[in-house]
Write a structure and sequence with these properties.
Oligomer: single chain
CATH superfamily of the largest domain: DD-peptidase/beta-lactamase superfamily
CATH topology of the largest domain: Beta-lactamase
Number of domains: 2
Shape: globular
Strand content: 5-15%
CATH architecture of the largest domain: 3-Layer(aba) Sandwich
Number of helices: 12
Radius of gyration: 21 Å
Distance between the termini: 21 Å
C-alpha cells in the first residue's frame, strides 16, 4: 500500500524500466535491520490535527460498544490513523464468551486471509532477488502444474490450453477455487472428494494435491477467489529454499518486529487468544495446535499492534522505521490491476464494483463507488478482520473481530464511520 496514486509507468519504455526495477536484481535480503518489537507501533496524535471530527469518530465507538452490550459480538478492536499517526484506537468487549479479559491491542486474532498479503510480500522479496518472477510458469517451481485440467459444464475435464503463471496465483486468476464459496456446485464436490479440506499435508504436499484437481477456468481468464495463495506458499518454499514460516519470518515479520504474527502460536499465548461468540465447526482453528499445513492463504494469527507494523510498512512505500522490506517499484507493481471487466464478470467473490485486484491486494479503482480514495489497497479475513491503506487521503486502518457472520456488515460500517469522520 504505497503512497503513490497514479501510475507514472504508462509508456511501454517506462513499463520496461519498471519491470527491470522490480524483476531486476536486488542485493541481499529484503531487510538488514530489525524494528524493535518492544517499541509500540501505535503512535497517537490529536484526531483534529489529523483531520478527523472526534464526535463523528465517536459514532464508531458507540456502535461497537452497543454491539458488545447487546451480545452481538464478544469483542473487537478498531484502529484508525493518518500520516503514520493513530487518531482512534480502542478495544471493545472481552476476548471471548465467558471471558473477563478485555480486548486490547495485544489480543491475538485469527486473521485468516490477511495472511495472503504477508505471503505475497514475502514472494516479492524473492522477486527482488531474482529468485522468482511473477511471469514464471508455476510449473517451473512445482512441476505437476505443467499438466493441469479444466472442468467442463458436463463434468468432463480437458487439458488447460494456457500455463498458470505466478501472477495468476497472486491475483486469484489461476483457475483454482475455494469450494466453500459454492459448496453444492459439482466442481466443489469434486474438490471435496479430492481432498481439498485436508490439513495433514505440508504446503508443498497440499499444492501437489491441488494440481490433480480440475481448474474452474483457464489460467488468466477469470477471477475466482481461491487456494491460489496456498499454492503460492509452496512456490515460495521452492524458490526460497526454506519452509514458508521461516521465509515469512526472515523476510517480513522478523524485520518488522512482528513477534506475535505466526502460523502457530505457543501454548503460553493462549490467555491472549480471541474467540468467537458463535464458534462455527470447521472455521475457527485452534491457534496452538499445529498441523503440518502452513496455509499461505489463511493460516496466520496476529495482534492489532503487530499487524499495524505491516500496514505502516505498506503505507511507508515498503519501509517502516528505517527497515525496508520492499522497493517502492516492487510495491507499485503489486498495486497494478491484474483484472479486466471480462475477468471480473467471469468469476466469483470479486471484491465489488469500482474495484480491481493486484498481486495480493484488492484495489479501489473508482472512489465514486467506494468510500476509500482511488488507489486504496487492502484485504480482509473471513472472521471479519480487515485492513486498508488509502494513499490519496493518507488514511490507514486495522479492524479485528472474530465474527464471520458479520464480516461484510463491518466492512460497510467501517468505511462509513471513518470517511464520515474525515473532514479535512
Amino acid at each position: 500500500m504505497s503512497r503513490f496514486i497514479r501510475n507514472p509507468f504508462k509508456t511501454r519504455a517506462a513499463q520496461m524500466l519498471l519491470a527491470l526495477a522490480v524483476l531486476g536484481l536486488a542485493q541481499g535480503p529484503a531487510a538488514a535491520r530489525t524494528v524493535d518489537p518492544k517499541a509500540s507501533s501505535i503512535v497517537r496524535a490529536d484526531p483534529v490535527a489529523l483531520g478527523f471530527d472526534p464526535a463523528r469518530l465517536d459514532v464508531a465507538r458507540q456502535a461497537l460498544a452497543a454491539d458488545v452490550a447487546s451480545g452481538k459480538i464478544a469483542g473487537a478492536y478498531l484502529l484508525v490513523g493518518r500520516r503514520g499517526k493513530v487518531a482512534f484506537e480502542q478495544g471493545f468487549g472481552v476476548q471471548g464468551p465467558g471471558q473477563t479479559t478485555p480486548v486490547s491491542n495485544e489480543t491475538i486474532f485469527r486473521v485468516f486471509s490477511m495472511t495472503k498479503p504477508i505471503v505475497s510480500v514475502t514472494a516479492m522479496t524473492l522477486v527482488e532477488q531474482g529468485k522468482l518472477s511473477v511471469d514464471d510458469p508455476v510449473s517451473k517451481y512445482l512441476p505437476e502444474y505443467a499438466s493441469l485440467m479444466v472442468w467442463q459444464a458436463d463434468g468432463t475435464r480437458v487439458p488447460a490450453a494456457t500455463p498458470m503463471l505466478v501472477r495468476h496465483l497472486m491475483s486469484h486468476t489461476s483457475g483454482l477455487i475455494y469450494g466453500f464459496i459454492q459448496p453444492n456446485a459439482p466442481i466443489s464436490k469434486a474438490w471435496a472428494a479430492g481432498g481439498e479440506n485436508r490439513n495433514d499435508l505440508t504446503a508443498r504436499e497440499y499444492a501437489r494435491l491441488l494440481a490433480g484437481l480440475p481448474l474452474k477456468s483457464e489460467p488468466g481468464a477469470a477471477f475466482n477467489y481461491s487456494h491460489s495463495t496456498d499454492v503460492l506458499g509452496a512456490v515460495v518454499e521452492v524458490a526460497g529454499g526454506k519452509p514458508l514460516d521461516v521465509l515469512v519470518r526472515e523476510r517480513v515479520t522478523g524485520p518488522l518486529g512482528m513477534t506475535d504474527t505466526l502460523f502457530w502460536q505457543p501454548e503460553a499465548g493462549r490467555a491472549r487468544f480471541a474467540e468467537p461468540k458463535n464458534n462455527q465447526p470447521g472455521v475457527y482453528f485452534d491457534y496452538a495446535r499445529p498441523t503440518p499445513y502452513l496455509s499461505g492463504g489463511g493460516g496466520m494469527s496476529s495482534t492489532t499492534e503487530d499487524y499495524l507494523r505491516f500496514v505502516l510498512m505498506l503505507a511507508g512505500n515498503g519501509e517502516y522505521k528505517g527497515v525496508r522490506i520492499l522497493k517502492p517499484a516492487t510495491l507499485l507493481r503489486m498495486r497494478q490491476d491484474e483484472t479486466t471487466p471480462e475477468i471480473r464478470r467471469a468469476g466469483l467473490f470479486f471484491p465489488g464494483p469500482g474495484m480491481g485486484f493486484g498481486l495480493g491486494f484488492s484495489l479501489v479503482q473508482d472512489e465514486k463507488v467506494q468510500r476509500p480514495g482511488a488507489g486504496t489497497f487492502s484485504w480482509w479475513g473471513i472472521a471479519g478482520t480487515e485492513f486498508w491503506v488509502d494513499p490519496k487521503n493518507e488514511v490507514f486502518m486495522v479492524f479485528m473481530v472474530q465474527a464471520r457472520e458479520f464480516a461484510q456488515e463491518y466492512q460497510r460500517k467501517n468505511r462509513a464511520w471513518i470517511y464520515d469522520a474525515l473532514v479535512k
